[in-house]
Structure formats: structure tokens, C-alpha cells
């Protein structure tokens, strides 16, 4: 997911309230594009029987934002991201070699080229952004025009007249689901993927946890208490609003996290439907591991690259109580023999996704072992499904 972290912060508003032990985010939490993704989310497609959903002005603006090479540069330079995808392609080479692949939201075409290098018979590289024109030139420059077919258009609109064996896509947005690009992968799956085909990544898990971040609070808020010896504290309410009314994409460390994480949503890319993405609700219960000021919540995600043989196997991570989810989360990443995982967790090497923070206007002191419980709901904006509304409650 690129774009925003180095360009401008996500703009939305999670409609923060002063802490009354139940701040409720609701409102138009429209983080702007992270990397304003290429393909669009649409309804489920059953063959070609139903007409595709119209391309809205929001979609056109989204695709246009991916025409800027800087967004793709940021994604490609994220070595954790790009090298994990290349490793996943090589690990699943036996499923790719001699097979037909579709790359959903191909961007500059780098994942399509990795697949061609792994021996794919044919790769359909699909992108609705103008960057597809450059991707086609990149394919020619690497003498791969006989293997890679660049299709400039939405997944809902382009035609592929054969079943495909593999779908690959880097669809993840901030907080995993922001930008709604997963919908495009679902459309591609339902239109073209043969039974028993491979989807990379195959699974994803969104996590949340309470955090303490006194340095960020000091830099943004306490700074105004004494500015060159002048009391500028009347600025404080506005400073809190400007700093914390919207989700913030930034990097924290494991030391900022107060509890084990909670699983907000597990995504199985083989079975999830577009309807499931419209609204996600979870109830959480945390127990603080330390005495500290509680500044808000952090969200991050993992994606897993497992083979098609695991389609019917139960997932190792479910939306379960925090302890079980946390143990599974750590065990998965710690065991190199298990499925390859790309993680954006605070304790792992940083990525361009960083972590998504939802801050309170004022911190709350919590004691060790104190319970924090409540609910979180993530809903696609009715005005623009690529945006997300965040509603948080806690006590």
C-alpha cells in the first residue's frame, strides 16, 4: 500500500471525542489513498452474466493517483514487501511454472515479471491506471512480450478467455482493508480462477492493540505549553484536533504496545465475499501488561502465502480471544517451516504500510493488569467504498 506515508497523511476523520471513557469514532474516516490502488472493488461476478458495476468518479480519481511513478517507487523500494513477494513466487514455483497467472493491479509489472521468470506460461497483467502503459514498455524492454499480456482496464471490464491457475496481487491497504482493492481480487477469483487454483497471498489477518506513545503526544501537544518561553496553551484544543482527529500512519515499536494483540478480522482469500468487506465488527478485551498512559489503538496486519492444498484446512488464526490469537500470531512468524508471512507488526522490520494509529485527544492512565474492553467497527463509506469509517468504543 503505498503513497500516503511519504506524501501526505491519510485524511479522514475518525471523529475523535475527548476522553469520556467511551469516545466513539464514527464519521467520515476517509483515509485518502495509501497508494491509491489500481483496480476497483465491485460486486461478485458470476461468469459474465451480470454487467460490471459502473466506474465512478472516485474510481477514476483513484486510478489516476496510481499513474504517478513515485507511488510505485515507494512500493518497490519497500524491500520487505517486494522481496517477500518474490520469495513467495519462488516457493510456489511448482504451481506457477507452465501455468496461467493473472496479476491484479500490476502497477509497473514487477510481480508479473517475477512470475514469468519463475516459468509461467502466460501472465495477464491487469491495471486500470495509466501506469499500465509503462508496464507494457517494461515488459518489452525485458523481452517478455511473448509471456506477459498487459491489460489496461478494470478487472470487472477486461476479458480473459481462459481459466487461470494463479492469482497474485498486492492489494493490501492501510489497516489492511482501506482502499477496498481486495474486492478486485475477489472479482478476478470468481471470474477466472480454476478449481484448486492458487491465490497469493492466501490469507490475511488484521490486528489491533492499545498503545502508549508519550513521545508523539509530547511532540504534537505538550510542545505548545512553552514555546520560546511563551505560554501558548490556548492552542492545545486545536492542536489535539489537528493531530488526532484522523487516523495516522506511522511507525511504532513493540515497546509502545500495552497488551497482546486482538484479531479484528481473518481473511481467507479463497472464500471471502465482497459483502463481508462492507462492515467488520469485533469485540475485544485487553489486559494491560504495564502501568502507562494509554494514548489510543494501533492496527496492523499479516498476510500469508500458503499453497492451494490448504484451501480446506482450518486456519491457524481465527477471530478468537486475545490470548489464543496472540500466541498463534507469534508462533506463525517465529517458525520458518510454516507458511511464508509478510508482517507489518510493530516488532517486525518496518514496511511502507507502517502501523495505523487512532489516538485519543487525551491519554488515560492505566494500571498493570487493568482491563480495557469494547468494540470496533470498520465500515466502507457509502459515499466512496474505498474510504473507511472507524467506530470505536471502549471502557
SSE topology:
Elements: H1 57-65, H2 69-77, H3 79-91, H4 93-96, E1 100-104, H5 110-117, E2 122-127, H6 131-141, E3 148-152, E4 164-169, H7 182-192, E5 193-200, E6 203-211, H8 214-220, H9 236-244, E7 248-250, E8 262-268, E9 279-287, E10 292-305, H10 322-334, E11 340-343, E12 355-366, E13 371-380, E14 388-394
Parallel strand pairs: 1-2, 1-4, 2-3, 4-5
Antiparallel strand pairs: 6-8, 6-10, 7-12, 9-13, 10-11, 10-12, 13-14
Region (Disordered): 1-57, 311-336
Keywords: Methyltransferase, S-adenosyl-L-methionine, Transferase
GO molecular function: histone methyltransferase activity; protein-arginine N-methyltransferase activity
Could you write a compact summary of the structure shown?
InterPro entries: Arg_MeTrfase, PRMT_dom, SAM-dependent_MTases_sf. The chain has helices at 57-65, 69-77, 79-91, 93-96, 110-117, 131-141, 182-192, 214-220, 236-244, 322-334, and strands at 100-104, 122-127, 148-152, 164-169, 193-200, 203-211, 248-250, 262-268, 279-287, 292-305, 340-343, 355-366, 371-380, 388-394.
What distinguishing features does this structure have?
about 400 residues, alpha/beta, 6-stranded antiparallel β-sheet, 5-stranded parallel β-sheet, protein-arginine N-methyltransferase activity, transferase, Protein arginine N-methyltransferase domain-containing protein
Structure write-up:
The chain has helices at residues 57-65, 69-77, 79-91, 93-96, 110-117, 131-141, 182-192, 214-220, 236-244, 322-334, and strands at residues 100-104, 122-127, 148-152, 164-169, 193-200, 203-211, 248-250, 262-268, 279-287, 292-305, 340-343, 355-366, 371-380, 388-394. The protein has 395 residues and is an alpha/beta fold. Strands 6, 7, 8, 10, 11 and 12 form a 6-stranded antiparallel beta sheet that branches. Strands 3-2-1-4-5 form a 5-stranded parallel beta sheet, sandwiched between helices. The longest helix is centred in the N-terminal third of the chain and has 13 residues, at 79-91. It starts with 56 loop residues before the first helix and ends with a strand. Residues 1-49 and 310-334 have low confidence and may be disordered.
Amino acid at each position: 500500500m503505498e503513497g500516503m506515508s511519504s506524501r501526505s497523511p491519510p485524511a479522514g476523520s475518525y471523529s475523535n471525542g475527548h476522553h469520556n471513557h467511551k469516545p466513539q469514532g464514527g464519521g467520515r474516516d476517509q483515509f485518502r489513498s495509501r497508494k491509491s490502488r489500481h483496480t476497483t472493488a465491485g460486486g461478485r461476478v458470476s461468469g459474465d452474466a451480470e454487467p460490471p458495476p459502473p466506474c465512478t468518479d472516485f474510481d477514476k480519481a483513484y486510478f489516476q493517483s496510481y499513474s504517478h511513478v513515485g507511488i510505485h517507487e515507494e512500493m518497490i523500494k519497500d524491500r520487505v514487501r517486494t522481496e517477500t513477494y518474490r520469495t513467495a513466487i519462488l516457493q510456489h514455483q511448482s504451481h506457477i511454472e507452465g501455468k496461467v497467472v493473472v496479476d491484479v493491479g500490476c502497477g509497473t509489472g514487477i510481480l508479473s515479471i517475477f512470475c514469468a521468470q519463475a516459468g509461467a506460461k502466460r501472465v495477464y497483467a491487469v491495471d486500470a491506471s495509466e501506469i499500465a502503459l509503462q508496464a507494457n514498455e517494461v515488459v518489452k524492454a525485458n523481452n517478455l512480450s511473448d509471456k506477459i499480456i498487459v491489460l489496461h482496464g478494470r478487472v470487472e471490464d477486461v476479458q480473459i478467455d481462459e481459466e487461470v491457475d494463479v492469482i497474485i496481487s498486492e492489494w493490501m491497504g492501510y489497516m489492511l482493508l482501506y482502499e477496498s482493492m481486495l474486492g478486485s481480487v475477489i472479482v478476478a477469483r470468481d471470474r477466472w480462477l480454476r478449481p484448486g487454483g492458487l491465490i497469493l497471498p492466501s490469507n490475511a489477518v488484521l490486528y489491533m492493540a492499545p498503545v502508549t506513545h508519550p513521545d508523539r503526544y509530547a511532540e504534537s501537544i505538550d510542545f505548545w505549553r512553552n514555546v520560546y518561553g511563551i505560554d501558548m496553551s490556548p492552542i492545545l484544543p486545536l492542536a489535539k484536533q489537528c493531530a488526532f482527529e484522523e487516523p495516522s500512519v506511522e511507525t511504532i515499536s513493540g515497546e509502545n504496545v500495552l497488551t497482546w494483540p486482538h484479531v479484528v478480522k481473518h481473511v481467507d482469500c479463497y472464500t471471502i465475499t465482497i459483502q463481508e468487506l462492507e462492515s467488520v465488527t469485533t469485540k475485544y478485551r485487553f489486559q494491560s501488561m504495564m502501568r502507562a498512559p494509554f494514548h489510543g489503538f494501533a492496527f496492523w496486519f499479516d498476510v500469508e502465502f500458503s499453497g492451494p492444498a490448504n484451501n480446506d484446512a482450518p486456519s491457524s488464526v481465527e477471530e478468537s480471544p486475545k490470548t489464543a490469537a496472540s500466541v498463534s500470531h507469534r508462533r506463525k512468524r517465529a517458525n520458518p517451516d510454516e507458511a511464508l508471512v509478510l508482517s507489518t507488526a510493530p516488532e517486525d522490520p518496518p514496511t511502507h504500510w507502517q502501523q495505523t494509529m487512532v489516538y485519543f485527544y487525551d491519554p488515560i492512565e492505566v494500571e498493570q493488569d487493568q482491563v480495557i474492553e469494547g468494540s470496533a467497527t470498520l465500515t466502507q463509506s457509502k459515499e466512496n467504498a474505498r474510504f473507511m469509517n472507524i467506530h470505536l468504543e471502549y471502557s
